[in-house]
Amino acid sequence: MAKPKLALYWAAACGGCDVAVLDTNEKILDIANLVDIVFWPIAVDFKYHHVRAMANKSIDLCLFNGAIRSTEQEEIAKLLREKSKVMVAFGACACFGGIPALANFTSRADILQRVYQEAPSNSNEQKTVPLTKAKVVEGELELPELFDTVLTLEQVVPVEYFVPGCPPPVDLILKLVDLYATGKLPPAGAIIASEKTLCDECDRTKEEKKITRFYRPHEIITDPKKCLLEQGIICCGPATRGGCGMRCIKANMPCRGCFGPPAGVADQGAKLISAIASIYQGDGTEAINKMLEEVVDPAGTFYRFGMADSMLKRKRITKT
Amino acid sequence: MKTARKIPLLKKMLSQFGIEDERVRLDWVSASEGDRFATIVNEMTEQVRKLGPFSGNGGGKNG
């Protein structure tokens, strides 16, 4: 029997998800024995035209990492969907927008202005900005077009499974491969992670949550055994899906929400507003204003990985 | 009293999304203050009507 065909792709991503696949160490050899890798830009030299030449649904499993924010990424997402039997949104960016989706607080015009004109490290006297089409002596050059809004993979093509995380932890990658290899994949739409929240899985000592001051991580030396939230560190554990193995918590850093909302939560940020404001002590105007000052950037903190997947999806922009 | 803290934090966050402060209002009305309740609801309705329909422009790739 021919080996199943595996494709991996990166869209708006940092490359960390691809590295996470390589982090399976010697297991990567098992994966390579188990499947034929037919497309993987970071590691294998196949091109887009090789994928285009494949028959529809001839790729058995496609692990797609990264959000969608350009015409090229959209095109390849659609192409790989057409060619793949099973499409997996792999990592926080493909699942929820991830860090790139923080760009949804701004717009394409503002991004180009900031990056190419204003950034202090720039020297761009001719005010050059990237154009989708540019005429040069040799002919016309083309670049993909950047979107105003960063999208999740599922907002562009239908997706069968979701493996969250920034990046997905090795045990979940191996779990997915194992489920696939043994033909035990769950019903489509399943999220390959825990059904519980991170708080449910966290082994730190938890007592009563009564906060009189929120600290940013650099402002306090925390007790490594005690709940970070109880020490005044904003931790997204109450409204974040578990299954990550507490990677950040073990490094004494608060949860930043990369596993997305847990089952039954529609909007991670709204849930966190509720959780964080609930445990703060004091009802007077003074206490409330103090809390508002201490939660420096609520939208950026509570939607750090989930902006594209949130109910509002982006900051409102007015087009002229 | 958790609501007294949740709504200001929510409003701070909504302002980051470019959503007008006037679209959310927290007020306290006792069960015996029927008139006051009606006045506040009418004021709120009028206020939101003035702002016009909410266009979230979320979801599309270019807006």
Which key features would you list for this structure?
heterodimer, A: alpha/beta, Rossmann fold, 5-stranded parallel beta sheet, B: 63 residues, mainly alpha, flat
- Describe the strand arrangement of the main beta sheet of chain A, using strand numbers: 2-1-3-5-9
How many H/I helical runs of chain B? Answer: 2
What is the terminal-to-terminal distance of chain B?
38 Å
Compute the average pLDDT of chain A: 93
**Largest sheet composition of chain B:** none
How many strand units of chain A?
Answer: 9
Structural class call of chain B reads mainly alpha
Mean pLDDT of chain B: 89
Give a brief rundown of this model.
The complex is a heterodimer of chains A (320) and B (63). Chain A is an alpha/beta fold and 320 residues long.
Structure description:
The complex is a heterodimer of chains A (320) and B (63). Chain A has 320 residues and is α/β, with parallel strands linked by helices. Chain A has helices at 16-22, 27-34, 48-52, 71-83, 92-96, 108-118, 170-181, 198-201, 247-250, 268-279, 285-294, 298-302; strands at 5-10, 36-39, 59-65, 68-70, 84-90, 133-136, 139-142, 146-151, 161-163. In chain A, the strands form 3 sheets. Chain A has a 5-stranded parallel beta sheet, sandwiched between helices. Chain B has 63 residues and is an all-alpha fold. Chain B has one domain (2-50). Chain B is built from 2 helices and no strands. Chain B has helices at 2-16, 34-51. The radius of gyration of chain B is 15 Å and the shape is flat. The mean pLDDT of chain B is 89. Classes of the chains: A alpha/beta (320), B mainly alpha (63). The A-B interface holds A 68-69, 74, 105, 108, 147-149, 151, 155, 269-270, 273-274, 276-278, 280, 282-283, 287-288, 291-292, 295, 297-300, 302, 311-317, 319 and B 1-2, 4-6, 8-10, 12-13, 16-19, 55-63.
